[in-house]
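hiii so my PI (J.) wants the whole complex modelled not just the main chain, which honestly fair. so below is everything: two entries, each one labled with what it is. i double checked the lines twice but i was tired so who knows lol
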Amino acid sequence: MYTQALNTAETADRDLEDAGKAAQFQARIDAEERIEPNDWMPAAYRKTLTRQISQHAHSEIVGMLPEGNWITRAPTLRRKAALLAKVQDECGHGLYLYAAAETLGSSREELVDAMLAGKAKYSSIFNYPTLTWADIGTIGWLVDGAAIMNQIPLCRCSYGPYARAMIRVCKEESFHQRQGYEIMVTLCRGSEEQKAMAQDALNRWWWPVLMMFGPPDATSQHSDTSTKWKIKRFSNDELRQKFVDATVPQAQYLGLTIPDPGMTQDADGHWRHSEIDWTEFKQVLTGNGPCNRDRMAARRKAHEEGAWVREAAASYAAKRAQRQTAQAAE
Amino acid sequence: MVVANIQVSETPLVIYALRRADDALILGHRLSEWCGHAPMLEEDMALSNIALDLIGQARELYTFAAKVEGRDNDEDKLAYLRDVRQYRNLLLVEQPNGDFAQTLVRQFFYSAFADLYWRAMMNSRDATLAAIAAKSEKESAYHLRHASEWIIRLGDGTEESHRRAQAAIDNLWAFTGEMFAVDDGERALIHRGIAVDPASLRGRWLATLSEVTREATLALPQNDWMQQGGRSGRHSEHLGHLLSELQSMQRTFPGLIW
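here's the output for the full assembly
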């Protein structure tokens, strides 16, 4: 669903590398060429991308949990099927992203182990709970909406496998966003209780969604190298502003109030939000969000309880290969 | 306020459609419980996909039942506003997921039947049922392949997976007899060529099971004592809990559009 702007570039490793190759590499990036898995690349580029793509993959997989929380309680059969299909899409995104990360030389198992050990991050938005059905609409509308803002530029990312994965992911996210908004429209045209449910969900998700774009540009130290390598094309604040400008009229159409009494519209039409509470963001990031423990516990449980199944599949595949070799030798 | 259970005019054809719709919905619901919690991402995808097929089949069958009934019921009222005694699914499909072996054995028993059943139903004299059967048969064939491959992997995998798969077979076997039973109302539909006699499929079903379990080095139980009751609304204790979750929104906020 989304990868956070947290990636640090390990510039130190670059000193060890062939300066000529590095210059050639940068020239290819500057010429908007795509870097492919077998091409030479600086170790820090590989490391930055592995981290970013795997964080993105982990976010898709952990992101299945808050929405999955409503699959068994969706209010109609149509909504149940749509939500299940949506969560299944997120799983598919996780799979292509792990595959894209694998082209950089780390296995899916290593990447997943790092996440389960708490060493790799996933988007902190998924550490908030889904309390009512309106949260499912709001996640589609706002969380997927924010994800699209971040991900559309990634379709032009310098690393080919990531850029290509993002094209498909963005198509599906765009569908999810419309589906979420349609849930909100239905709620806002419904009873007073349904409208209140929609407003309550917006109140709870608005600020965490703005935090999805990462720290403000003034304090963000990670963007320079990513920008130079054309992994990142817009700053956190630019993307956040685009999102706010697109979202305010959508909230107005719904008849919902953005929970920011200080929000104003500039003469140039931009909606300016009040200051974000970054202490909350830091708390959630360091593991103190409302659901961090539950999310990690659920992923670890699935992994541990599934171990015997994965072992059985591996053991059967090995036996079968052995039998085929034995047969061929006869 | 519309909190009460709906009344359904249970003619043989309506009950017939509800039984198949309930099978598909309850099994689809059970499979959807795995989403986000499966042993590997490929199985999160596969089990969700099968759940989606089944929920799709349920929706078509409920819509057909509502149309045959001709009152103001629809797919959602039939799914969300009948209580446990009005549900007509097989006991097999409401059994809890248990471990992955339990889920896959349940799926294998059901899909091996559904695949034959829907293929036979493609010749139903009722055009809607024949069309639903044609779509369901394609889906069931894939579900059966997926489940069979897993039964073989688990049975012939590790000692632990073999033990778990065998335990699941032994545990669920008594729920398979109900798939082949019919009552007088359904017997009349069979005579009219609208439904097919499931008993006529039992030999081929057993052949599929024997072939797959043999390759999986697993054994089918010898005992032939079978649990009954789901088709007439006498369920296990598990279904009530499933329905209380499935129906919670419609029961809490009656009569709203979602």
